[in-house]
Structures are given as structure tokens and as C-alpha cells.
Amino acid sequence: MYLSHPEGTATYRNSRRWLAAFAILNALVMTGITLPHSQWPDSLSSQLYLVLGMLLQFSVLSFLVVLLTIALAYVLRSQKYYAAFAMTLFTIAQLIIITNVKVFSLYHFHLNGMVLNLLFSGALLENIAFSWSMWLSVGALLFGLIFGQTLLLLLSRKLSQFHQFTNRHHVGFFLTSYIVLQLLSGCADAFGWNQITAQNRYIPWMPTTTMRSSLEKMGFEVVQSTEGHNLPDTADGLQYPRNPLQCNTQKPLNILMLVVDSLRADQLTAEVMPNSFKLRNQAQVFDNHYSTSNATRYGLFSMMYGISGSYWKPILAAEKGSALFDLTTENGYQHFIYGSSTLTFPEFDRTIFSSLRNQLQQGNGKSSAENDLDITQRFITDLQQLPSDKPFFGFLFFDAPHGFSIPENYPHRIEPMLEQVNYLELNNDYDPVPFLNLYKTTAHYVDSLIQNIMEELARTQRLDNTLVIITSDHGQEFNEMGKNYWGHNSNFSLWQTKVPLMLLWPGREPMATNTLSSHEDLIPTLLTEAFGCANPTTDYSTGYSLFNLPGNDRGLLMESWTDRAILYDDHLFLINPLGGIDAVDQNYDSIDDRELPPEVLAGTIEHMSRFLKVK
User: Fold this and answer.
1) Domain containing 108: what range?
2) Whether residues 192 and 325 fall in one domain
3) Count of structural domains, the chain
4) Residue 95: alpha-carbon gap to chain centroid
5) CA end-to-end span of the chain, whole Å?
6) Is 262 found in the same domain as 201?
7) How far apart are CA 82 and CA 14, in angstroms?
8) Residue 108 pairs with which residues in a beta bridge?
């Protein structure tokens, strides 16, 4: 029995040489379909990168289809039907590319799992009427694709007769070129060639490559920003805000944000944070508040922009700062921006604080606890030197709970307490109490620093005109679900995403609410209530004012480095890359009888595309 072609291996391989040409021709067609729907850049280098990058991306995807063709023929023992298999698979591939072009024109991002789920859910049937003319158009499209594949097959067979290159030669060449493309993309990001990196948005499913830290370690001078550079190609794909802000700030209110890394909602108690807890009686408290992420990058991003973390890449490419700081600068605020650790990775100096990057400061201590103390003392010194009639915006990002760090001989310890964290020992049988108590002790320490700041505000008679905001970027888990989850950035349960939010707003009555709220709601609140912006919040946010929340029936999009979920009706709907949606409860146990309403998914996709634009 022969697995190879009966005429011999060499002849058999020669009989498949047309596959490489077939793949390349299909890649050219995919490029031709997609390129006209991309925004054509101004510079020649950007144009070359866009065209070649798109061609190489589609070439690699086409060769993957070829591999699938070969595997299918081998499994079915039908190697003489290579042409039929290849034509069928590439017809499907071209149909996906055409669908992606339509999706990109509607939603301004490429076909992904969420869109697939929307297309195949009830929302599609509710919004699209499949008339006979539409079915006729679909049929004509399929006929055209099959006819086109037939022509490409004939052409590829003809071309394969005029060269001696094998399929391996073609694959090797294009894979090498693709690797070079990724290296170029990484270098462009590191050296600030934003007109190059901006084109990645238009190349379907182009992975993000970053090499900043690696190149910096190799001795290259990595550009930390592109201040002063012209970024026309980059910003053209972004429309944030959608319309110019129309604001009338009568009397500037000092704003002080005290953000504690990894502080989850249940730590704001009389035992753990007694000083902050006492403030509840004077504050506006949101007891059902969620971060938009289980990670710092997206949690802070949404907090300071009022939009979902899905906008991170286009905002970073455009180096577009938060609209909040356009207003504080316009109104003559003094800015005090302190991070216990660096604010340059994640790249908040090129996103949130892009317009203030020269004013960013970080702690000078040897540990998170020392850094927290250092930025507290320096901020208090700043206040002492600031004229009383000068408005200020303060942002302090504490790190002790994230770094599990307390000062040596700290007097208040919650026992039994772990002295040092050994992550190798953590497992499902590990006793979490000592570890959790260390975490609580670090929160107690930061609470004492917050108290020092509040006392200074009172001493300088600034409490009556200073809005103080106490919150966190995300939570922290200690295996509460019994599923061996520790820390953050691993799931979207309430332990990792539910955080405190307390506002001390001068002139407002104290209140507490259990209405669902999100980090996306903070910026709409500040812009409407503190700066008197008359724009609808949809001009600059996907959230609502905290004082005009819609209720608990909203869906909250959550992002992480690799995953995505929607919180709805106190359940989590986990979205996998292939479009499947799995419902789980807050203990991450699967639920079979829960489905995400199509209108909630459609609304989420609209939020993700609201501030993007195409041609």
C-alpha cells in the first residue's frame, strides 16, 4: 500500500507545486479586497508598510489554509482531490475576508469572537431581513467566488510550470518575510514610528509586537514618547472625543484621586482601613462598583478615559491623552501626578498622561511601602507650597497591597500574618489566611497614609473645595472560590474586579448605593458635574454619570491582557476567541440555562466601536 503518489515521490511533490502559487494568488486577492477599505496613509513608508504588511499577513494565513488542505486530504485518503479541497477552503476563506471588510466598515474593528456570536445569535435575525434579493446577492457572491477560485487554480497550475521553486521555498520565503515584518513592527513601536504602527489597525488580525524593553537592554535608545512629532496617520483612525467639549467651569474644584493598586471592595472596613471607613458618613459611596479589568493597564485606562479597555491600542498609537486633562489644563490646574512605581509601563505616559508626561513622578524608595510613604510626603510638601487660590489635580497611585509590602516594625499587624510570600507554595490546599492578613495589613498601612493626606487638606483648609476620590484599579484574590486562583489577571470574578469607590464631594449630601457602577462612569461624572460639560456623555464616554446610573440591567465589558467578559445580571459571560460565550456565576461555576441577551452583546460591540472611524 502506498501513501505517496504511485508515480514516485518527486512526481507527486511536483504535482502539488501549484498549491504555493494558489495560496499567493489568493493572498493577493484578499489584499485587493481589504486594502481599498483601509485609510490610505500620507507617507510613502507607511504606504509600503501597509501594502506589504497586509500581503504578508494574508500570505501566512493562506499557507495555513494550504496546510489544512494537505491535512484534510491525508486524513480522508483522497489526495487526488487536492484541487477540490483547496478551492472549497479558499472559497470559505475569501468569504470570511469579505465578511470582515463589512464588519470593519460597520464596527471599525476586525471580525472577532464577539462579532461572530452576534452574527449567529438572535440579534442578526432581529436586525436583518433576508429578502429574496438578498439571498440572490448571496448566491451570486458564492458563484463569483467559486468561479474566481477556478480561474486562480488554472493560473496557479500554469505559473508552476515556469519556475523550479518548491512549496517549501515559498513557505520559507514568506515566513521569513513575516518574521521581518513583526520585527519591524516591534522596532517601530520602540522607536516611536507611530505612522508605521498605526497601520497595524487596518491589517486584519495583525498581532501586536513590542520590543521596547528588549531593545533598551541591548543598549538602544528607546523613544519614550513622540512629543512634538506629527501623527496624522495615527489619529485619523480615532475619534475621541466625538465632538469638541462644550464646558462651563464656574469655580474650579480641586480633585484628588487616591488610587490603591489591588485593593478590592471588601477591604474598606473598620478593621482594615479604619480612617477611610470613617469617611463613609461624609461621602458618596458606591458599594456595587466594578473595575473594567482584572489588570492595572485596562483598569486605570477606563477609569481615566471613561471608555472600555478595548481602545487601548488606538489610544496608545495616537498618544491621545484623557479629555479630563484637556479641561484641567484649560482651567489652570496645577498637576501632581505620583506613581509609587513607574507610570511608563504600562505606557500611561503615552496614553492617560500623554499631555502631562513631563510632570510624572515616582517613588524613590527601595520597596512599595517606602515608595508609598515617599509620594505621600512629597505630595504634602507640594500642597504646602501651593497658593491657596490655585486649583490642583492630584493623582497618587499606591502600591503596597500589590507588592505585599509594609514598613519594618509596622505596629499594626493583622495576625496570623505571613512574613514573606513564596508563590511556589501556593496551591489549592494552601491556607490563605496568613497571606490574606498580610494583604490586609498593607491596606491598613496605606490607609494611614491617606489619613495623613486628609489631615493636611484639613490643616490647609482645602477640604471644602477638594473632591477626594478613593478607589482601586482592580482587586486581588486569595483562592476564595477554591479553584486555585491567586492574585489578579486570571479571572473576572468579583474578587478580582469589584473595587471600592468613595467620593468626598463638597456640597453634596452623603449617600450610599448598591446600584451597579463601573470605572467607565467616573469621567462622565467629573466632566458633567465638576466641569459643567453640556455634551451628551456619548460624545466622550461609554459610561454614565454616577449620579444618574441606569440601573442593574446594564452589561459591563471587562478586559484583560488575553481575555474578555461581560458582567450582566450578576453573572459573567466569558467570551472566547472563537466567539463562544460561556456563562458562569461569581464562583466561576458553569451555568447552562443562562444566555446573554443579544441586545446586550450588540450594545457592547457599539461601545467598542463608538470612538473609531474608517475612511
Assistant:
1) 9-217
2) no
3) 2
4) 28
5) 58
6) no
7) 13
8) none
CATH number for the domain harbouring residue 354 = 3.40.720.10
> Which pLDDT value is given to residue 229?
37
**What Cα–Cα distance (Å) separates residue 47 from each residue in 134, 170, 200, 429?**
35, 24, 12, 56
476 with 564, same domain?
yes
Which residues fall within 8 angstroms of residue 48, CB to CB, at 6 or more apart? none
Distance CA 178, CA 59 (A): 9
Sign (positive/negative) of CA torsion 395, 401, 402, 407? positive
**Angle, CA of 511, 512 and 517, to the nearest 5°:** 120
- Specify whether 192 is located in the same domain as 259: no
Q: What is the DSSP letter of 293?
A: B
Taking CA atoms, 63 is separated from 54, 96, 204, in Å, by 14, 16, 16
Taking the C-alpha atoms of residue 482 and residue 5, their distance in angstroms, rounded to an integer, is: 56
- Give the residue with greater pLDDT, 394 vs 37: 394
**DSSP-derived 3-state class of residue 190:** helix
Unique residue bearing C-alpha cell 474586579: 497
> Quick one: angle between helices 82-107 and 18-34, nearest 10?
20
Neighbouring residues of 474: CB distance < 8 A, sequence distance ≥ 6: 262, 291, 293, 294, 295, 296, 299, 488, 489, 496, 497, 499
Question: Using 50, 70 and 90 to split pLDDT, how confident is the model at 317?
Answer: confident
Asked, for residue 480, whether it belongs to a domain, the answer is yes
| Rounded Cα–Cα distance for residues 87 and 72 (Å) | 13
Distance CA 476, CA 54 (A): 40
Q: How far apart (Å, rounded) are the C-alpha atoms in residues 375 and 362?
A: 7
Helix (H) or strand (E) holding 394: strand 392-398
Whether residue 339 is found in the same domain as residue 471: yes
Residues 101, 106, 109, 115, Cα dihedral to 10°: -90
What pLDDT score was predicted for residue 121? 53
Greatest alpha-carbon span in the chain: 94
Q: What is the pLDDT confidence band of residue 170, given thresholds at 50, 70 and 90? A: low
Q: Does residue 224 form part of some domain?
A: no
Q: Does the residue 244 lie in any domain? A: no
Helix (H, G, I), strand (E, B) or coil at 332: coil
DSSP sequence for 493-532: SHHHHB--EEEE-TTSPPEEE-S-EEGGGHHHHIIIIIS-
Torsion, Cα 99 101 102 105, to 10 degrees, reads 160
Domain boundary among 190, 217, 244: 217
Q: Are 211 and 190 in contact (CB under 8 A)?
A: yes
192 shares a domain with 272: no
The grid coordinates of residue 103 equal 464588519
Within this chain, do residues 115 and 193 fall inside the same structural domain, yes or no? Answer: yes
